[in-house]
């Protein structure tokens, strides 16, 4: 009996703790103009002194933007300013990644079975990634000012641990998704301390996930 | 037919002219490179290779590669070295790269040589409309079948009749300019790519389908290789055509520049259509001292690929054109098409079925040299990936074809040719 009760107890603790954690969690739910949840949006919490304290910080953090089936994986990578990003190549063909975004201009050849050196993203902002060989490849790196960011899940929810927010002088929240209209990306939301829902006013741009779903061979 | 010969020899370009052309092409390549002050210290090479060997059983006519009238690569059974292909891609700078394809075969006239070698210039630019240049020896990108490295097909060992012919006789020695726009960055489901190619060489294109007819195989002709066909009496007789029983398909004979136009249209990554118009603008009266003629060859090609879902895809191609040699000595219209269904059974196994039809119709003034041929073929292929680099595959190929000029060699014009292959493939 004891052999069954131990794992049962563990499961109960896990279930209980996941619910109890929600009590100390802050969440923002993002809905589109038709009230459908928006997944993979980046929610960032900005606080008043983060500009000076972290502007020159090198976080020593490493993130990965992989190339899988001629796609960037993940499609959207969110990192803290100062993070190094490596671009491995899980395909057996060559890729040539580039960015013309003001936040970071770079290009890097990615060869089969060879690791290219990581690239440090020092400035906050958004980097649009492309591949000079496979024109359908599109990916984004969102570089946040601090570690206070989260990606929305399929229910449109981004979670933050309120304990990590308690000592911060929070100024505002921002939301970013590549298909949001530009004027909506500039909206500053007020942090109320209580979980909140934000609905976009304008319709999002058309979704071209069809570029990611299937694969046809190129010469 | 002697009276035709003296009239037709308007230009007698020697073999040396071909080499002179290649030398000037290489010089142009060097100038092309040096203009960008390429940082040679940062050169990156990527080597890919495919080695295929296996066992074959065959019931077919003696192969054209052995001077027979058969349409398959071999009529022999037993162990077979299918091919070795090594592809070297080198990035000389962020804009300049080169690709070299080396092929090794156990059959044919040459056993080791180049099938493609070209430079590519594709700058990284922020504009949505981009461009690319290729210079050297290469295939036009008109196939949706030959998408693997070294212009192999990932779907079958025996290529379609259309692309078997291109593998034998078609190669560009020149420059190709592409202007293209990917749809994704401008939030569109449609991408396009327009191409213009200008080239020399490749003047005898059309010879083998006019005499032997279409074939089905994966044996690509190599640089400066001689392609054999049967010694048809009407072809080799000094009294009729007076042409050798072989052709060097990449020869330059008339100093004229050929051209092709290509247009690719792609919907997401799901559907693609490629249209090409090719015209070598050859002077059909040009003949060299080896008695190789320039053939005025032109064709339209439309290739389509559609991914129905993650496991089911469809490919098809249709070709129509004509070729003319001499003062209407040999003049044929030709049409060919294939349709192929591809099914991914599991992550490691896939099966494909392809149906080919092909037809060559005579229009010339020499009935003693018959050129009519037609046929159809069925190809079934199953491939299983044992590991990421080793796969095993089996293939059945059945071809029913008729070539009237077999009669000249006392061979029945209508033949049924069959081949079964089991191939072990290693990929590097």
Straight-line N-to-C gap of chain A: 63 Å
Principal-axis shape of chain A: globular
Give me the Rg of chain A, rounded: 20 Å
How is the largest sheet of chain B built, in terms of strand order?
1-2-3-4-5-6-7-10-11-12-13-14-15-16-17-18
Percentage of helical residues of chain B? 10-25%
N-to-C order of helices and strands of chain A: HEEHEEEEEEEEEEEEHEHEEH
Overall pLDDT confidence of chain A:
83
Form type of chain B:
globular
Total E-strand runs of chain B:
18
Biggest sheet details of chain A: 5 strands, mixed
The side-by-side strand order for the widest beta sheet of chain A comes to 6-12-11-8-9
Helix and strand element order of chain B: HHEEEEEHEEHEHEEEEEEEEEE
Query: What is the fold named in CATH at topology level of chain B?
Result: Porin
Question: Would you write up a description of this structure?
Answer:
The complex is a heterodimer of chains A (219) and B (428). With 219 residues, chain A is of the alpha+beta class. Chain A has 2 domains: 28-56 and 147-206, Immunoglobulin-like (Sandwich); 60-144, Sandwich (Immunoglobulin-like), CATH 2.60.40.420. In chain A, 18% of the residues lie in helices and 35% in strands. Chain A has helices spanning 2-23, 50-54, 162-165, 182-185, 210-213; strands spanning 25-31, 42-47, 62-64, 66-68, 71-73, 76-80, 84-86, 95-99, 106-110, 119-120, 125-131, 138-144, 149-151, 157-161, 170-176, 188-189, 196-199. A 5-stranded mixed sheet of chain A has the order 6-12-11-8-9, with no helix packed on it. Chain B is mostly beta strands and 428 residues long. In chain B, the strands form 2 sheets. A 16-stranded antiparallel barrel of chain B has the order 1-2-3-4-5-6-7-10-11-12-13-14-15-16-17-18. Chain B has a two-stranded antiparallel sheet with strand order 8-9. Chain B has 5 helices and 18 strands. Chain B is globular, with a radius of gyration of 21 Å. Chains A and B meet through α5 of A and β1 of B.
